[in-house]
Amino acid sequence: MLDYTEFYNSALDHIDLMQDYYNWQSTHNNKQFAYCQYPFILSIVAKRVILTKDSEQQMILRARRSLAAKVARHQAPQIDIFFLNIRVRRSHLISDSLNEIATKQKDLKKKLKVSFISEPGLDMGGLTKEWFLLLIRQIFHPDYGMFVYHPRSNCYWFSVAQIENLQEYNLIGVLMGLAVYNSIILDLHFPTICYKKLLSPPIVPINVSSVGIIRRPTIEDLAQIMPDISKSLTELLIYEGNVEDDLCQTFQVSFEEFGRVETFPLKESGESIAVTNENREEYVQLYLDWVLNKAIFEQYRAFYLGFHSVCASNALLLLRPEEVETLVCGSPTINITELKKITSYEGFKPNDPIIKDFWKILDSLSTELKKKFLLFTTGSNRIPVGGMEEMTFKITKMINKRENLPEAHTCFNQLVLPEYETTDELKQKLIISISNAEGFGLE
């Protein structure tokens, strides 16, 4: 089977995509042709352009409305009215973020700016990236209990038990929406079915009682999260013996989270209904529906509504689940050769010995350290849609401070490098810097 990316026509990346998008949205009136009618041929780069431009238009519209409201009240407008200003304390990151988002719902479609209370820092992009990074790190920590990590699939799934944390699930959805809306890459480990549910449906209906539900989920969907269980269900369906006598199963599901095992019926009186050769397909379908829909319905609905409160756009109709995942998470592949090609220099030349040593050192680092380097210098450890060529990167010489550690300005994807005398010193201090990259301030 061909991969969906094989149908991309990259030549369409260079047409007037927004005009095509507007034509598509108005086809019910004038029947104009639009490539958006056939989204499978539009590349992820083209769709990213459409979504970004559409987001920018919504930002401008919301800012204009705020300005008009100020003028109508004969109030002097302040620059802050054009932004979603998030002010948080590091020590109360989640509670402050929840409060800020709850009280600024009408501003979610404005350009995001973040500040950490009692810290000197102007957000040129770096503070925003750090806010996302720290907030996601805390929310996904096992002690917080909102998401369960599945090591076999290396992904997180929604906790069945955390039915009371709906505000926090909504916050994660808002964060994902803000990230897409503001072109920020997040290091999230959700399975593709999470994004499939996010597009179910892609436009929020008036009645939200059934949003985020996958109709007839498959064993392949479950395999993205729990490959062992999906394998067991597959074996159950093809078992040639007597299912009832040999396997002794009933219409129940037992689930373990954080050391606790709980059992739930899959249908009324399920604990008394044996799984047989005749009803095993029903059992499997109910099992899939319970794990992927019913058990996490309230949690996922809060998450879904949070995302769409920011990212509501007809452009979502163009996207596949895998493409939403790429927009949110970017690419994990770090190509040092490609990074070198896009790098500019200030105070150094590409052929300077220290620069040659720098690239050799960087290329020799482990994948984990390369990701930390990218995080240190850009505020994200992943590559945006479109690859390295979509980025800018600059290496600047630090003057008269040879004993200092390398510094970075994530707002500008800039590394500030002292001119060290030896390769060993360069490697040692570079690793120290990239291994301790947290916190932004003004010098």
From TrEMBL:
Its main location: cytoplasm. It comes from the Eukaryota. The keyword Ligase does not apply. Its EC number is 2.3.2.26. It holds the Pfam family HECT. Residues 104-443 form the HECT domain. It is found in: Cytoplasm. PROSITE patterns: HECT. CDD domains: HECTc. The active site is at C411. One of its GO terms (cellular component) is cytoplasm. SUPFAM superfamilies: Hect, E3 ligase catalytic domain. GO terms for biological process: protein polyubiquitination; regulation of signal transduction. It catalyses: S-ubiquitinyl-[E2 ubiquitin-conjugating enzyme]-L-cysteine + [acceptor protein]-L-lysine = [E2 ubiquitin-conjugating enzyme]-L-cysteine + N(6)-ubiquitinyl-[acceptor protein]-L-lysine. Keywords: Cytoplasm, Transferase, Ubl conjugation pathway. GO terms for molecular function: ubiquitin protein ligase activity. This is HECT-type E3 ubiquitin transferase.
